[in-house]
Amino acid sequence: MKKNGLHIDDSGNKCWFKDDKFHRCDGPAIDTADGCKQWYVDGIKHRLDGPAVEWSDGSTAWFKDGDFLGNDDKGLWRLWDLLTNEQRNNINLLMRLLKVQK
Prior knowledge:
Elements: E1 5-8, E2 14-18, E3 21-22, E4 30-31, E5 37-38, E6 40-41, E7 44-45, E8 53-54, E9 60-64, E10 67-71, H1 72-82, H2 85-88, H3 91-101
Antiparallel strand pairs: 1-2, 2-3, 2-4, 4-5, 5-8, 6-7, 8-9, 9-10
């Protein structure tokens, strides 16, 4: 039987699955008890509106379609370079990216 939906282990780590792959569209697919969060779509590390990995110490890593873009601010600017004009003109996406910069 394939894993689907939320699974919580004995340590309190939360993982969301779709067909046995990490997957969640409305938040991190992995949310560990120690505060690390990771975003996945269909088993691929990916996030457009912020870093795909947020460690508990505040450091970040940026991924798009599984490709590592960089850590902290460097990753944000590499993501910006990869966005389409339509994505760059999306006010909701821009507001979420600006919020990450605070």
